[in-house]
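# step 3/5: fold
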Amino acid sequence: MPPSGSRREDPADIQDLLRRLFERRDAGGLTAATAEALIDEARHVTAGAVDDPARRDRALRDLRRVLYTVCFDAGALDRAKAMVDLARPPGLDEAQPLAFPAGLSDDDLREWIKWYSARARLLETDGQFDQAREIHSALADACGLISALDQDLFFVLTNAVQSAYELGDYSRGRHLMAWAEAEAETWPTDEVKVQMAVTRLFPPLETGDLALLLRRHDIIRSMMTGPWSPLLPQVDRFVALTCLQLDAPAEAAARLGREPPPETAGPGERSRDALVRLQIQIAANDIDPVLVDQALHLLGCQESRPNDWAMLGALAVALFKLGRVGPAVLTATLFLRRLDSVAATLPRNPHDARLRRTMILSALEPLQQALVAADYLRGAEDVAGLHAMMLHGASLRSRQYRDWAPGPRIAAAAAAAWAAAEAARGGQADGAAFYCAVMAFDLEPAFPALNPAAASGLCVSFLPRDGRLLRIVYEPDGPRQSVVALAPDALAGLVQRLALEIRLHRDATAERAALGEALFGPLAARVRDAASLNIAPFGPVAGLPFAALLLDGIPLGTGRGLTIRTCGHPAAPVAGQGPRRGVCILSSPGADDAPLGRVDDEALAVAALHGVPAQAVIRDFDRAALDAALRDRPALLHIAAHFRLKEDDLAASCLIGAKGEAIPLETAFGARDLDGIDLVFLSGCGSAGHGGGRSLAGLLTALGVRYVIATLWPVDDEAAARMAVLIHGALVRGQPPDLALADAAAVLNLVPAFAAPCHWAAFQCYQA
């Protein structure tokens, strides 16, 4: 219904309103508030019909399309979408694939093309670049079906030219450019001249001709006076970004100018300007923290939505360079969640569309290092794989990274931060909500130091603090700390390379020696004399296979027991409870698609070593058998099975029982008192469940298990079976678990087929 006191619609009034809307649009400087005021005026002039979905007559459709343009340019995207929906021509079914039915008149075909063009621009703001590209390309072809283009269709054609060049489809860009040049001759208006001058900025993307780009930019600046001057900042930003793509950051800064837009320019204009300035500062390695703060605040405004993926990527890199690792990882996670739609538009040739590709790759490398440093190793592997795919032009599956996160703690923080941004955009929260949610996130959990009272031998902690890794040695008169000489980012990269090299069945001698010297070099004499070494590793060294590190050319685990301390605290002994007895052995070959080859032989050999009858071994165990074993709390529990572990998410991790049954780890172990179990031996792939400051080994020791032996990565079935038998043999001979593991690794290392560290270094002994 029209508002009270409004008049009946008058075609002449509608035409007058259209004229004024065009003037207001061309004048630029639109904001969401002015767009809303113009919509209110349209409601008054049309007696409310502009909002009536039942009214589809031509004059109203034209009015709605112009209102869409006004709202789009003002950043009021929800209003723009509503106007596009109302402007849909009769007979056009948005749910159907883009097609133009035979028999459409030229007038109808023009209207369909204009509607689809508006729709394509909205798809770009939603990150659906692949669909938008298909529409732009099809619309250029459709323009060829019309006997004569009007001026609005000329702009549809130049949009297609720009899209082709931005996406690296240069042959099509050249073809469409020649067509647009010919059409421009028939339209000698200032508007067409300016639009053509802007379109001519795109061919230097193909040739890399910086001088040509700058000459054309100077021409445009001389043309954009009077009513065109509000469009000049948009052109300056494009030229600055193109200069960056052509490896000319100094020219980029000069073309953008020194002064950012004033506060009166509106959040959309300031957001787009901040994005370009951030990218220039990143290229020049001179980042202004004030600009970073402003950009984070601006992400909470609705007008930032079309470029939020790019802003998140630039902010991630800037925050990494400023040393704000927690906020950087959070923004990089949000960036990756928007990556699949962006990457879908990248040409397969890595040399094309270099700026967008560079932005993506520049965010991935520091993210990968930060995840390694914070002990999210599997998340870092995801990013390393993505980095390789992007570097070589591989395509991504649709929505592959929509919910990506290194672990549930980061996932929850990312969801909360983005909810704050959406609430701010919708006016339900303060604009600083997103800034506060991001900057308050700390990647490092509160790591406890090693409790020397519960340890023996040489006790060392490695704790991240204030961007450094501290080495804390526990002396009789108290702890003494020093800084690990290797910088944290270099250390993180070395840790990751070592893990990769070992898992590829390589000796990785250089990496093992470098890490051994960096971490333990100042303690070399004391390590040589130590019969046992207790290590509390957090941060970048938490997932290291310590036994494989070389010190003075000798593996750290040779001749001494190594115990890795977990985040748990030893459970207090129960009064009156004596030492427990008994050995329980559970085994399962796993699912039919991935059977464990030696699991039965391993279980029977372990049973024989401990004098357990073969019939007492629980084969093909299930949840009930595991529950019964945990209730009995035997002194030694051996589980030989598949483990499927999700980093930092024990609730989503499981071990595989009979016939492929998934047994959730957190529910299976988490609600129990396991005090009295001396050793749990987890003989399976990656069974330590390590990552992000949490591990299955840590859960078990916190519940009261004294020792846990588990693996850091998948191990060959034959090697795993041999290690298990060797360890249990040493246990039977009276060795404690850490020395039993050291003896077994030393024996297996002498077997040529299993000498590589991948076969024995994965096994580690854990204690609270």
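# step 4/5: annotate
DSSP finds 32 helices and 16 strands in the chain.
# step 5/5: archive (pending)
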